[in-house]
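Agenda item 2: iron/sulfur cluster complex prediction
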Amino acid sequence: MQPLYSNETGFIASIRKQNATNFCQIRHLPSGFKIDLPQLAVSLRLDGQGRWISFRNESGFYRRCLNGSVVLAHQETFLSTKAYEELLRNIHEVVHIIIRDERLDDQQRKTFQQCLEHDTAFYRQQSELYRSVYPEDVPILPPDRYRDLVVQPLIGCPNRACTFCAFYKDKPFRVLTEQQWQMHLSGIERLAGALPGDRDGVFIGSANAMALSQRRLVACLDSIEQKLGLLKRGIAAFSDPDYSVQRSQTQWQTLSEKGLVQLVVGLETGWGELRGKLGKAADLSKVYRAVKDYQSAGISVGLTVLAGVGEVENAEEHRAETCRWIEALNLGRSDKVYVSPLSENGHSSEFALREAERFQDDLSEHSEAKVIPYQMQRFHYYC
Ligand code: SF4
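Presented output:
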């Protein structure tokens, strides 16, 4: 018999699919298992409770989102019951192949058996739990925080005027009452127990957590720690300095000490004139002062930059002004600049994609910060 286990490299098994000679690889992950059938170009990720996380076959790469939708080729869609049943049939087929092997250990067998028991009704219940917990869907997360647990002490965006953003246009900005917030956190606690265990950070949604008063924000950070514990990657949030509460340096320091590690600001451009046309403040002084405050308090800075906005003939000025403005901030290696190509209905033009590449090159020459490509339609609130 061939050796099947290698504990150093994970569990590698060769399993015949009836008469076919398809080899199967099973790897333990911190949050469950990854199953590969390379000959069939199939891969499947399950969490420790047998729920599918992602699935790849010849028709594409599917990922499950917490809200019950499925992402295929970066497009988030809610599958019809029939389409979901078809997807689950394919997933179960893979598990049927591997569960026959008598050399699986007890944990693997239990997880795979659970997977076979999870039907569309089960997944519908999972998304209903999500909907009961979140007052508002989670439309966007930074690329390095999309595995965070999202909490929403406030919903919507206090600005809602940006020409390129449709996330919150028809959603009123609102702060949850203390009672609603406590209920939300209790729901998150229940939901967290039902999530894969590799979520090691918290993200405070929605568009601008810094619009909370200092008293409310400190209370939020305290209750996050009480209910969810101190997570390894700390707490991050979006911030819009033009619609935020004024804070003293001592108050920023307090937030840092209470676990706030990163704030992401929608800069979009360092060229005031263009920024004004995009629906944000043309005067960048508040953003500048806010970033300096974060830096002094030891809070990492994230800036989003939007490539491909404005007139084509002004693209160079947009890039040059933005690089100059960011350079003046003296960002460090723990800071990030996220470069997004302008996207309309989930698609970016050739011009926007090309500009994003140019931005990445130019910014890398002007700043120590990590420059990260960010196609926001790719980062959903995945399971
Ligand atoms: S501030 Fe941000 S979330 Fe609000 S409308 Fe503008 S881009 Fe959208």
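Discussion summary: The chain is about 35% helix and 20% strand.
Owner for follow-up: CH.
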